[in-house]
Hints:
Elements: E1 2-3, E2 19-22, E3 25-33, E4 36-44, E5 47-50
Parallel strand pairs: 1-4
Antiparallel strand pairs: 2-5, 3-4
Amino acid sequence: VVVLPAEAGEKHFGFEERVKLVNPRITAEGYKIGTRGFTNYLLHADDMIKE
């Protein structure tokens, strides 16, 4: 899953079509349940274009 800003607009790509991410970056969100720690990694980009 790639998170894009609303300004990027709606995107339509074919199944398994190659794309290029503009300014990609990964963020980590951590949390704990009891004594166990968990991390979710999120992939953000400014835009997604056809390669």
